[in-house]
Amino acid sequence: MRSSTSIRAWASALVTASAVAATSTVGVTPHASYSSSIGVLGCKVNTNRIAYWPMAVDCNNICVSLSYSGRQVYLLRIDQSGGAHDVSYDAWNYLITGKSATADPTAGGSVNMETENVDASKCASLINTSGSKLPLSAANSMNFLNSCLVEQAAGNASWVAENYVLYNILDPICTYGYNEVCTLTDWPDQNQPTCPHTLGDPVSLTSQPVYNIEYPTGEKVLAGSSASSTTATPNTANAASNMGCSSWLQCQSTLFWLMSMGAVLHSFLGSL
Ligand SMILES: *[C@@H]1O[C@H](CO)[C@@H](O)[C@H](O)[C@H]1NC(C)=O
Ligand SMILES: *[C@@H]1O[C@H](CO)[C@@H](O)[C@H](O)[C@H]1NC(C)=O
Prior knowledge:
Layout: H1 2-21, E1 24-31, E2 50-53, E3 63-68, E4 71-80, E5 85-88, H2 89-97, E6 111-117, E7 134-137, H3 142-153, H4 159-162, E8 164-169, E9 177-182, E10 211-213, E11 220-222, H5 226-230, H6 237-240, H7 248-251, H8 253-271
Parallel strand pairs: 1-5, 2-4, 7-8
Antiparallel strand pairs: 1-6, 2-5, 3-4, 3-6, 8-9, 10-11
The structure holds 2-acetamido-2-deoxy-beta-D-glucopyranose (2 copies).
């Protein structure tokens, strides 16, 4: 009895120690333009609460807590940065000033903040889908989703595999496709989702706008419009990385289109 109690106490001390060690201090920089390397749809998540971390996005740790000066936010970690710890400009501004970037925009560089991975449920309010499932692009998120489904099939934890929803929208800023849910019912035999319209049809989509908050003006601008891509003049090295493509999914609408045409051709050939 005694020894099992002490083992339990020891194990719980270990768990506590590792929970403490899980909090780390990182230099956080503002990020102006929404992107997601795994194809999370910006029209269905709160793009003002996104973490762009240097590590690859994984199937479990998609929610992080970030604290500074007595303030705290939860952020969806759904994009990989080129090396910086970037967060949505609005989240950065709120942590530093206590106000939204639209109300009181502040400029600046890297600020040290405390972060830790937290349970995905903490980010539920940042996702506007039924059951707060992670909204992914049916045509362009399959590599990532497949990796999560493989993990789940191997018996490993995979939050994304249990909590995703696919839409027939091609790009993270929701400018192409149909706002409709697709299904993947027979994975792995079926590796392409089934949608009401043709999967990956690159029709113009205007009903699901995504807005960015420009750095450092705090102006809300439609993502993908020329204003957001030409007038932002970040004055820090990391904010400047917003201007380039930190990942292939971020800026290549043309690539989306090509990939989608590939998907269309593939299903067409498959139906012959
Ligand atoms: C959530 O999505 C619904 C449509 O599914 C939309 O009417 C509503 O405005 C969205 N809410 C937010 C906060 O974006
Ligand atoms: C499942 O987890 C084990 C142990 O962490 C790991 O070695 C293995 O690679 C994982 N398998 C998959 C498919 O993720």
